[in-house]
Specification:
By secondary structure, the protein is mainly β. The protein folds into 2 domains: about 120 residues, Sandwich (Immunoglobulin-like); about 80 residues, no CATH class. It is about 10% helix and about 55% strand. It contains 2 helices and 17 strands. Strands 1, 2, 4, 5, 6, 9 and 10 form a 7-stranded mixed sheet that branches. A 4-stranded antiparallel sheet has the order 14-15-16-17. It has a 3-stranded antiparallel sheet with strand order 3-8-7, with no helix packed on it. Strand 5 and strand 6 form a beta hairpin. InterPro entries: CD2/SLAM_rcpt, Ig-like_dom_sf, Ig-like_fold, Ig_sub, Ig_V-set. Keywords: Glycoprotein, Membrane, Signal. Pfam families: V-set. One of its GO terms (cellular component) is membrane.
Length: about 210
C-alpha cells in the first residue's frame, strides 16, 4: 500500500489522546550535521500491530507494520529505522529539524512508546581574548582581560603575583568562563555540543610591556 494512503488511514487515529508506556519526555541536544538515534524501550512495549514515528507537526516519518514486517519511510527525511529495536536515527540533522519526535504504537489501544525533544545547535567559535596592562613594578603588573564569545563578553582583573579569580557567565545554552591559574588566564567558551578555549600568560604580558 502506498505510503501516502497509509498516512491518510492512520493519521487521525494516531494523533488522538493516547496512553503512555514511557515515563518522561527525553531532551537531547545535538550538533548541526551530526546524527542522533532515538530509542524505544522494547522491554516495556505491549503487543502492537503498527508503530509510527512522527514529528511535532503530526507528520509521519516512519510507519512499521509488525505482522508483514513492512516499513514505509517518508522521502522528506534522511533517516534509518531499525526493525528489531524500532529506533529511529536522524541523519545530517539541521536546526530546522529541532522539535518533538514521538513513537506511537497501536493494537488494542493507542500508546506513546517514546518521546524526544530534540534541539539542534551549532558548535561554538573560538573565543577572543583582549587585554591591557598596567605596570606597578619591574616584572609586576595588573592585567585587565576580556573574553568574548559570539556577542557576549566577560572581564576580569588579574595581578601577576596573585592570579586566582574566576568569572562565569551563562547565556542560554552558552557558557563563557574566564579564570586564572598560577599565571595562565584561560577563556573557555562552550555549549552542550562543543567546547573551545584561548589562553594567555600574564608574566609574558608583564615582561613584554
Amino acid at each position: 500500500m502506498a505510503f501516502g494512503h497509509l498516512l491518510m488511514i492512520f493519521i487521525t487515529m494516531l494523533i488522538s489522546n493516547t496512553a503512555s508506556v514511557y515515563k518522561a519526555e527525553n531532551v537531547i541536544t545535538v550538533q548541526t550535521g551530526s546524527s542522533v538515534q532515538l530509542e524505544v524501550q522494547t522491554d516495556k512495549l505491549p503487543h502492537f500491530n503498527t508503530l509510527v514515528w512522527m514529528n511535532d507537526n503530526s507528520e509521519n516519518i516512519v510507519m512499521f507494520i509488525k505482522e508483514t514486517v513492512e516499513t514505509e519511510i517518508s522521502n522528506k527525511y534522511s533517516v534509518d529505522f531499525n526493525q528489531s529495536t524500532f529506533s529511529l536515527t536522524l541523519k545530517n540533522i539541521q536546526k530546522t529539524d529541532s522539535g518533538l519526535y514521538t513513537a506511537k504504537i497501536f493494537g488494542l489501544k493507542f500508546e506513546d512508546a517514546a518521546k524526544y525533544r530534540v534541539s539542534v545547535i551549532d558548535p561554538v567559535d573560538y573565543p577572543v581574548l583582549n587585554w591591557n596592562v598596567t605596570m606597578i613594578a619591574v616584572n609586576s603588573c595588573i592585567v585587565n582581560i576580556s573574553c568574548s564569545g559570539h556577542d557576549r563578553t566577560i572581564s576580569g582583573r588579574y595581578h601577576s603575583n596573585n592570579c586566582s579569580q574566576e568569572e562565569v557567565a551563562l547565556f542560554g545554552m552558552q557558557n563563557l568562563t574566564l579564570n586564572c591559574k598560577e599565571d595562565i588566564v584561560i577563556c573557555n567558551y562552550s555549549n552542550p555540543v562543543s567546547w573551545k578555549n584561548d589562553t594567555i600568560q600574564i608574566t609574558q604580558l608583564c615582561t613584554s610591556k
